[in-house]
């Protein structure tokens, strides 16, 4: 008889489920446990439950619609939220989305509202007497879902890499809900976002503007995988790390300080020694590498900011600290090479954004969001560091030109070039481009004085930049271009092309070390080593 009941329940869940993904098979259709199971690491990842939040489009819409009304009791609220949910995952999802849709900044509450009602709890959250995790647990209990409140530390607002958890400043609470056969993390407070694309917030009961509303939220904090959650949250009870191998508070402090966008883009650290605090070598240098998944290499753009750790200053001797960082991309790895100009502590903030080439060329300002931060500690500098040439911001090397303009380097694939007093740098165009321009930069030299030393010419689909260096030293070369019939520019990285006043888009840049001895060094490399020659 029990098997028959389970079979009928499974048929009902498949029929009533609002999942739009017909291949969804992860959630095993077993009876939901009557007693809360002990905490154990989940057997499958979040991506095994769902790959794209769009699978919840219908479920999310229910939560958004319900959120436009004020429910007087939890019974009424839960009935409206989960009435058409066919699985425990869907139940948890609609509760999560209902909470994240509610914009407490704009909600008005009656002072007489009862505290044991949904509106009463929301009012308490707004006034600081209640919390999101209590609300989520309460609604889950009405929905028949096992849910717990977990207390611990979090790398929340105001936290910086290197800070130790020695007091209660960063105490926090979050939830774990039992769905899809395992305990999974939910952080409604961090997942909540605000109302966008609407000039006015509709009053409760008003549906006239519902079509124009779009609610932003952070899907990362719904059913977050433990291996990602541990970067930001450390529970006081080790078993609620839900990891096969738990870590200590010290190890939690040492983990790199990453944000949810880091995981949304699929980023990861290829080096095991990447920590929240990075110590420079005797020359004041340290390297941080971030790897990208193959599907994001063509669209991700990175930027950074460097400032002193204990003060809001981003200059050293009136020179921007950004010029002491060299950012480059090779393959799927973006590298940040920091050279501290003096002893002390610095804060390196790394930003990213995913854009298409077309979006880059429109000229619209690009919004970069932080993906990770590091504390850079330089105990002593034994080598005097000079800043990089004052080129356009962003990465060095030709990879940007290939990703965004289809401009493929032929002669120089690396960001750093060693040359004599003359240099030819050649690219092949895979799409029509026009109005090329190269500008030289050198510490202590005016850009206008260097303008005549950089020229270019185009032959069929080849563009060649010819540089004659007026003196030895380190140069930066910015290359600009634009598409045919395009007047695009991006993020202020534009230049005037002689007197034609055409706005060009920054394409890429190189760091060039020019030396008269370069040809001698190259020729010596071609001469067989005496020992090698004698043994042949």
- Portion of residues in beta strands equals 25-35%
What integer value in Å does the Rg equal? 29 Å
Q: Give me the number of helical elements.
A: 16
> Widest sheet: strand order?
6-3-2-1-7
* Quaternary structure annotation: single chain
Mean pLDDT equals 83
Protein name: Transglutaminase-like domain-containing protein
InterPro entries: Ig-like_KY, Papain-like_cys_pep_sf, Transglut-like_Superfamily_Mod, Transglutaminase-like
Main attributes?
disordered C terminus, five-stranded antiparallel β-sheet, 16 helices, 536 residues, alpha+beta, 29% strand
Describe this entry's structure for a reader.
This protein is of the alpha+beta class. Helices cover 23% and strands 29% of the residues. The protein contains 16 helices and 26 strands. The longest helix has 15 residues, at 2-16. The protein is elongated. 35% of the residues are buried. Mean pLDDT is 83; it is low at 1-28, 194-213, 487-494, 496-501 and 523-536. It comes from Daphnia magna. Residues 122-190 form the Transglutaminase-like domain. This is Transglutaminase-like domain-containing protein.
